[in-house]
Backbone:
């Protein structure tokens, strides 16, 4: 796949290279991902969307180094990923399972830092800052279950921020919260990208959210997944729930992505021709 | 740590090693036992060689006295377990179906449940001596507890919506009891039966060890008082195998009932 | 089910309480009336049992019989829990070793601990070491299998979390894995406490001249029926009390950790 290269000849921050994943179950082999290739450049927000069952979570787990692909590889700044790489953080879909109920909010956020041998005082400082930036000042001593779902997901995000990752991966991060909270969290994430200088890759089944948050949207085909298209989202920053979503371009882009997701025919040679890989 | 989550052995290899590892484990343990005993790493006064123990086990199986003891233990165990089922399951259903009845019996049940089942042994020994009757009574009262608790729990946690549906369709009371309450309690009762069967075996051995009733436990006491270490090892091994057999049998029943009725 | 808040609520709640107290009170009174009417030496009246209880188990009786029993119980229990926990952690991290040892562990788990008494009696002789040994053995395997199971059945999300944020080693074990396995471990400890009391009593009946179990059986053999009843009473109270204390502690620990207690039947898989 030498055809896929960054414009400057340097490595992109993240490269997914001909990824494929086949699960072997007692019932037989299940091909979840067939051939997925895309790049993410430093500072970008990229969303991965696709019809349900399109192996989105499988793909994200491969990107996070939690799952070994059957073939292909993931490169982070040109270095092959074997196991969860340093400098990458993951916000899990299910906050209630990924926060430890026996630790306080602060304890949950400092845990990865203490594990990375960050001194106690510095870890607490970074955690407090991260918690403040997601609007959770003063909640440090509470237990996760004393917070609402949206607040728990904020703790999850704060944990990732305090970790100061180069790459932030998010798996359906706002799927388990109500609509209002969802908008709040979407608007929370974008400025944080600037503040923390992160690159964000998120998986979502929500087309609106993908278009609203992203610089580019990677559309997966129905399983076994291939990349149907990569859609640029040239909407101006800063984005806003009202202005951006009323922008006619937003509507057109949303329409286009929706069409690509809904297109009935499965992955065929035609779709690979349609790949728009570089900007 | 990272590579651990990544590495997944191929399924065929995993399945084969899953079958072979237990065999390898038992073989290694047996070899280790034999070698340690033969070379004197473990003195013969502590662990006799496995081969000698196995030979003794073999001769034991040819002795009529052993079979008489095994029959005594089996009979007492089966009768005690049957009595506990007849006692505890109907009691659990009766008490569990009515909230008022449950409240009435709650305090004594909760208070007596954690009492070790051999507390009444001295009294039972006094009243009915050391025969089969004594064993059955002691086994039944010990094994009844897990059965009673599981039956109570099963009957009381019947899905209320199912009961309401049954009432809406005007099912008569006996049908409601059998088709709804008993059917949904059955998997839990099956678990209770497995626990009761194990308890019954343990209590049975106690009656033989302490109460002097005839059976496998009495064989153990005999071998021990005769300073026959190989004999003690052989009979203990047999008791363990019997325990394993009981667990396998009632585990199978439990899975069977669970598969048939789970979620009913 | 729920009692509405009204003026009728207080009497009704009192009524519910009284209803629950009927049977226990009736049993105790019934025994007393029947026993004092029958004058059967096998069934002494309550005041006589109480008298024997005080003389047998307090003062010198406490130091001679009760204290050694409790010390053996405690020592064997702690030894069994600690070693079972340690072994369970090792097996929880080594799936192949676990698979290899599985038949042996199943064997030890289904062997009634009391069947080991003659063997331990021969190997360790009469004395506290025998009692402690058998109690520890009976606790060890249940703790071993439940700790392993608790660690193994932990939410895979916790494994992902540890992997992504590189939480490893002792910190992962102590902060992530063991707390997640706590409901299993505590349920096993609760089950084992009952088993340990039973094994303690039987081991004293089989191979000791001191201790609560030994004294109770001795009382029966020497026709001291009040004393026998006092022993049965103490053992019943002990079983009940230890279980109640453990349940309270278990609930407190799990509530503090934001977890739910496991049911007792889940303890022995």
Residues:
């Amino acid at each position: 796949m030498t055809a896929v290269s960054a414009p400057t000849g340097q490595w992109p921050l993240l490269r997914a290279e001909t990824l494929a994943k086949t699960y072997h179950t007692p019932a037989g082999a299940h091909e979840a991902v067939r051939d997925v290739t895309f790049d993410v450049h430093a500072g970008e927000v990229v969303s991965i969307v696709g019809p349900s069952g399109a192996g989105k979570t499988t793909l994200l787990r491969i990107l996070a180094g939690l799952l070994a692909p059957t073939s292909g590889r993931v490169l982070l700044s040109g270095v092959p990923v074997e196991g969860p790489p340093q400098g990458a953080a993951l916000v899990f879909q299910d906050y209630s399972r990924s926060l430890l109920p026996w630790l306080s909010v602060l304890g949950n956020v400092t845990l990865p830092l203490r594990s990375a041998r960050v001194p106690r005082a510095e870890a607490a400082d970074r955690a407090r800052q991260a918690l403040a930036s997601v609007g959770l000042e003063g909640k440090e001593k509470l237990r996760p279950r004393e917070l609402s779902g949206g607040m728990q997901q904020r703790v999850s995000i704060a944990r990732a921020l305090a970790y100061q990752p180069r790459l932030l991966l998010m798996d359906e991060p706002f799927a388990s919260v109500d609509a209002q909270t969802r908008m709040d969290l979407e608007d929370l994430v974008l400025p944080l990208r600037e503040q923390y200088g992160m690159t964000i890759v998120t998986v979502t089944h929500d087309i609106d959210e993908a278009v609203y948050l992203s610089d580019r949207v990677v559309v997966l085909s129905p399983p076994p997944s291939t990349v149907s298209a990569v859609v640029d989202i040239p909407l101006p920053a800063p984005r806003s729930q009202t202005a951006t979503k009323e922008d006619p371009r937003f509507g057109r882009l949303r329409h286009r992505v929706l069409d690509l997701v809904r297109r009935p025919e499965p992955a065929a040679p035609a779709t690979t021709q349609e790949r728009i890989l570089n900007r | 740590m990272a590579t651990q989550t990544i590495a997944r052995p191929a399924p065929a290899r995993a399945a084969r090693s899953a079958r072979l590892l237990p065999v390898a484990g038992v073989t290694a343990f047996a070899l280790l036992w034999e070698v340690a005993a033969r070379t004197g790493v473990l003195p013969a006064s502590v662990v006799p060689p496995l081969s000698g123990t196995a030979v003794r086990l073999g001769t034991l199986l040819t002795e009529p006295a052993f079979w008489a003891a095994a029959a005594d233990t089996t009979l007492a165990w089966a009768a005690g377990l049957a009595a506990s089922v007849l006692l505890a399951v109907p009691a659990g259903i009766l008490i569990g179906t009515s909230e008022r009845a449950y409240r009435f019996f709650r305090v004594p049940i909760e208070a007596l449940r954690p009492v070790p089942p051999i507390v009444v042994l001295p009294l039972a020994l006094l009243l009915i001596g050391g025969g089969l009757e004594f064993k059955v009574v002691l086994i039944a009262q010990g094994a009844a507890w897990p059965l009673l608790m599981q039956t109570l729990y099963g009957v009381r946690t019947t899905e209320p919506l199912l009961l309401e549906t049954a009432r809406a369709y005007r099912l008569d009371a006996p049908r409601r009891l059998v088709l709804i309450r008993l059917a949904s309690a059955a998997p839990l009762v099956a678990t209770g039966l497995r626990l009761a069967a194990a308890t019954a075996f343990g209590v049975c051995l106690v009656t033989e060890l302490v109460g002097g009733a005839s059976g496998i436990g009495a064989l153990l006491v005999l071998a021990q008082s005769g300073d026959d270490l190989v004999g003690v090892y052989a009979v203990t091994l047999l008791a363990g195998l019997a325990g394993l057999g009981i667990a396998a049998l009632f585990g199978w029943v439990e899975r069977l009932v669970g598969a048939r009725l789970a979620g009913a | 089910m729920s009692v509405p808040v009204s003026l009728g609520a207080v009497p009704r709640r009192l009524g519910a309480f009284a209803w629950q107290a009927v049977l226990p009170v009736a049993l105790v009174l019934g025994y007393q009336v029947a026993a004092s009417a029958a004058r059967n030496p096998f069934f002494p009246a309550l005041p006589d049992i109480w008298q024997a209880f005080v003389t047998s188990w307090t003062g010198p009786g406490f130091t001679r019989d009760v204290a050694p029993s409790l010390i053996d119980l405690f020592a064997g229990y702690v030894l069994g829990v600690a070693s079972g926990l340690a072994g369970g952690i090792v097996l929880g991290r080594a799936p192949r070793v676990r698979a290899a040892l599985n038949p042996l562990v199943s064997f030890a788990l289904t062997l009634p601990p009391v069947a080991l008494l003659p063997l331990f009696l021969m190997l360790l002789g009469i004395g506290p070491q025998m009692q402690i040994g058998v109690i520890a053995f009976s606790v060890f395997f249940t703790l071993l299998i439940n700790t392993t199971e608790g660690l193994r059945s932990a939410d895979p999300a916790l494994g992902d979390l540890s992997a992504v944020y590189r939480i490893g080693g002792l910190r992962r074990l102590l902060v992530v894995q063991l707390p997640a396995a706590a409901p299993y471990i505590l349920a096993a400890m609760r089950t084992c406490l009952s088993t340990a009391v039973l094994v303690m009593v039987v081991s004293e009946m089989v191979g000791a001249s001191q201790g609560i179990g030994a004294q109770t059986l001795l009382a029966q053999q020497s026709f001291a029926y009040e004393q026998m009843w006092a022993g049965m009473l103490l053992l019943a109270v002990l079983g009940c009390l230890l279980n109640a204390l453990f349940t309270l502690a278990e609930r407190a620990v799990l509530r503090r950790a934001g977890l739910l207690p496991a049911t007792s039947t889940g303890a022995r898989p």
